[in-house]
Automatic annotation (TrEMBL), chains A, B:
It comes from the Bacteria. It comes from Chitinophaga silvisoli. This is NUDIX hydrolase. GO terms for molecular function: hydrolase activity. The keyword Protein transport does not apply.
Length: 223, 223
DNA sequence: ACAAAAGTGTTGTTTTTACACCCATGG
DNA sequence: CCATGGGTGTAAAAACAACACTTTTGT
């Protein structure tokens, strides 16, 4: 059987848009590069695919070694192949996005970066490569995903309140949603289960605590 | 600036799910391979990416040289990277789908294939590589796309009737839709424009001819 | 005049939206 | 007992689904 050895192939990388939600803000994790090209500019984390590796393993490797993160929700987004997107040569990127509850991890800069930082998705700096485009596409994709898959599960704590889930949806979709109609739609969808407990220690009425319905695979919401 | 020359990279291919709609049937174009691997089996058309080429150019090249087709609607679908998907070695495929009105082209087998044939999407043979999976994913994606983008434009003639558009939607979504409610939704969406003309030569009432509203970029339909 | 298929209209139901109201908590 | 925020209910509007009726054509 013939093999591919005669072909010359572009480099192949997995790039990651890591979304985190904390204090009512949706953020993306960016690295500040300490090598050319785009030295001292902010970019998405990523790595080149190894021959024996699957793309999601490449992503997991980046999350683990560059960011100290484990076991995140991961979704393939799109493949970016503009020939001049990397000044070092032809490089094709398969973009993914990951969802993380930042409270669970303390991030630290790896060897390739000066710094690692969360940026509010509404206040992103100009990014190196074509990462502005990738980040924008990822946000659109997440906004769509949240209507069809219980994404809150990945971004909130195991127990959470209705106002917390409500704020998450308003933040990600960047719209305002009537809290009472929101409650009804979420409950009708069977999205979450009441635990009977309440969140204590707040300065007014203690909201009910819910957990996600793990039986549920897909949902349909519209706002 | 460093380059990538030290990395060894997998082969990168563009694979194509070419959808055609004719006589009320949605079909996919398949090739019968005349070389190993998967000799004499049906597979999706595809080609390896050349270094100076963009993925959509690879697709266009396949459509032109293997199938004699030009200027088709093309959409990137997903990237398939299972390490053993190609027995010749590590090969990653970026799948795309194309939409074509088969009436416009006479297909002919290229040098790589014994035969080229349209297959009803509901009666696909077992395919080589992981192309069963790719074809199934492409159909799902098309079913979603048709609700948000005026896809009929690519699959029908420039002038078409409401019953023709109705049949297309029923076929692609694989559901039955009340023709009167369908008409109302399509017209309310501003999807199409009445031309005042009528389709002649039928054995009963001559239906109105419409054309697509080219101003329209995205739509929202639900059935 | 009839059958077949296409255009038009109506009605009841469900879903969505926009609110009003009451309850619990801390100060 | 008041301000704040959270839980519950309701009525109007919009969207949807199911269906009847009329019109045009070829035979």
């Amino acid at each position: 059987m013939p093999s591919f050895s005669s072909y010359k192939n572009p480099s192949l990388a997995a790039d990651l848009v890591v979304f985190g939600y904390q204090q009512g803000i949706l953020s993306i994790l960016l690295l500040n590069r300490n090598t050319e090209p785009f030295k001292d500019q902010w970019v998405l984390p990523g790595a080149f695919l190894l021959m024996e590796e699957r793309l999601r393993d490449t992503c997991a490797r980046v999350l683990k070694t560059k960011l100290g993160m484990d076991d995140l929700y991961l979704e393939q987004l799109c493949t970016y192949d503009e020939p001049n997107r990397d000044p070092r040569g032809r490089a094709i990127a398969v973009a993914h996005y990951a969802l993380v509850n930042p409270a669970r991890f303390a991030i630290t800069a790896g060897t390739m970066a000066n710094d690692v930082k969360w940026f509010n998705v509404k206040e992103l700096p100009g990014l190196g490569f074509d990462h502005d485009l990738i980040a924008a596409d990822a946000l659109k994709s997440l906004q769509h995903k949240i209507l069809h898959y219980p994404v809150g599960f990945e971004l909130l704590n195991d127990l959470f309140t209705m106002p917390e889930l409500h704020a998450l949806y308003e933040c990600i979709l960047d719209i305002s949603i009537d809290r009472r109609n929101f409650r009804r739609k979420i409950l009708d969808a069977g999205y979450i289960i009441s635990t009977g407990k309440k969140r204590e220690g707040l300065h007014n009425r203690h909201p009910d605590l819910y957990e996600f319905n793990k039986e549920l695979k897909s949902i349909h919401l519209s706002f």
